[in-house]
Amino acid sequence: QQQVKQSPQSLIVQKGGIPIINCAYENTAFDYFPWYQQFPGKGPALLIAIRPDVSEKKEGRFTISFNKSAKQFSLHIMDSQPGDSATYFCAAKIADRSGGYQKVTFGTGTKLQVIP
Amino acid sequence: KAGVTQTPRYLIKTRGQQVTLSCSPISGHRSVSWYQQTPGQGLQFLFEYFSETQRNKGNFPGRFSGRQFSNSRSEMNVSTLELGDSALYLCASSLQTYTNEKLFFGSGTQLSVL
After folding, report:
1. Sign of CA dihedral B21, A89, A63, A52
2. Residues of chain B with a CB closer than 8 angstroms to some CB in chain A
3. Which end of chain B has fewer beta carbons closer than 10 Å to its terminal beta carbon, N or C?
4. Are B19 and B78 in contact (CB under 8 A)?
5. Which of B60, B95, B57, B73 is nearest to B20 (CA)?
C-alpha cells in the first residue's frame, strides 16, 4: 500500500526556474512531513521538514507548502541551480510518543535535472 | 563527527547465497533503521532497532533479518538470495525523539544478485 504518492517521477527545468514536486498522503495520523535530497552515490539527506500546524515553511530557496484538508504537500525550489539536480523524496511519519517506533513512509522519488 | 558508515559499499552474490551488511551509526544515536531502495519503488522500510531491540518491522519476508549490538552498530542479513533482492540497502541513524526525528543516512550497500 503506497501511503505517500509523489509526482512527477522526473522533472527538467531551466536554471532559475521553480520546480514543484507534489505529494499526497492517505493516513491522517501522519504529523511529520520531511523532504530528503539524494545525490548519485550518496544516501538521502534531510532538506526541510514541516509539521501540520503550519501551512508553509521556508529554508533558503526551499519551501514546503502544506494543505492539511487536501492531505497534500509540495516542495518548491526557488531560483533553481544545476547543483540542485538530484532525486527528491517526500515522506511522512507519525510521531513517536510512547517509546515505540513509527516508520518513515517515503514517496517514490522525483528526479530533478536543472539545465544551465 | 563521523557520519553513518556502511560496509561493504558494493557486493555481488549469486542466487541462494546469504549476505551480511554492516552499519555503524553516528556516535550517540541509538536508533538504527534499514531501508531497501529500488528504482521506481523509492525507499521501503525493513526494520528499526533501538538499544538492541527491534521495535518495528516492514513487510519483508523472514529471509531479511537484523540485529543491533550494545555499541549501537547494526547488521542486516539476507538469506537465500533472490534476483529481486538486488537493490541499494540504506542504513539510517537518529536520535529519535519527538523534537528531533531527522534520519542520517549512510551511502548504502549496493547489492547485485546474479
Report:
1. negative
2. 4, 31, 33, 35, 40-45, 48, 50, 55-56, 58, 90, 92, 96-98, 101-108
3. N
4. yes
5. B73
Bridge partners of A86, per DSSP, are: A112
| Single-letter amino acid code for the residue at B76 | M
Q: How far apart are CA B67 and CA B77, in angstroms?
A: 9
C-alpha cell at B98: 519527538
Q: Which three cell numbers stand for residue B67?
A: 540485529
Q: How far is B79 from chain A (nearest CA, A)?
A: 24
Residue B94 CB burial class (10 angstroms; 0-12, 13-18, ≥19) = buried
Asked whether the predicted pLDDT for residue B97 surpasses 70, the reply is no
Taking the C-alpha atoms of residue A16 and residue B12, their distance in angstroms, rounded to an integer, is 41
Residue B39's pLDDT band (cuts 50, 70, 90): confident
For residue A4, give the nearest of A49, A35, A45 by alpha carbon: A35
Q: B49, B50, B46: which is closest to B63 by C-alpha?
A: B46
Give tens-digit pLDDT for A44-87: 999 999 999 999 999 999 999 999 999 999 999 999 999 999 99
pLDDT tens-digit series, residues A14-36:
999 999 999 999 999 898 999 99
